[in-house]
Amino acid sequence: xxxxxxxxxxxxxxxxxxxxxxxxxxxxxxxxxxxxxxxxxxxxxxxxxxxxxxxxxxxxxxxxxxxxxxxxxxxxxxxxxxxxxxxxxxxxxxxxxxxxxxxxxxxxxxxx
Length: 112
Hints:
Blueprint: E1 26-27, E2 33-34, E3 48-54, E4 60-71, E5 74-78, E6 84-88, E7 92-97
Antiparallel strand pairs: 1-2, 3-4, 3-7, 4-5, 5-6
């Protein structure tokens, strides 16, 4: 696996990986790879999470909200609009705990 590093005096670079990860991960292009990590667990119930799931057609979908339950291999997430999303644990590709959303700003008043 080849990794490129930034030379002194040049702009910073990202790590370039010339082959896919051996233990999981998704090959994005001929020189870039990304590793999806699920770092949520049943102990995170009640916390705000961001989850990525694989859909039956092979595409991905993201769900962000508060983890309400993790029972019998199914996760239930309450979205911002109050709807519940149920995700099968087997379809979960990536997930992490995220901070609460920022407070909404009040609309600015037009000048008088």
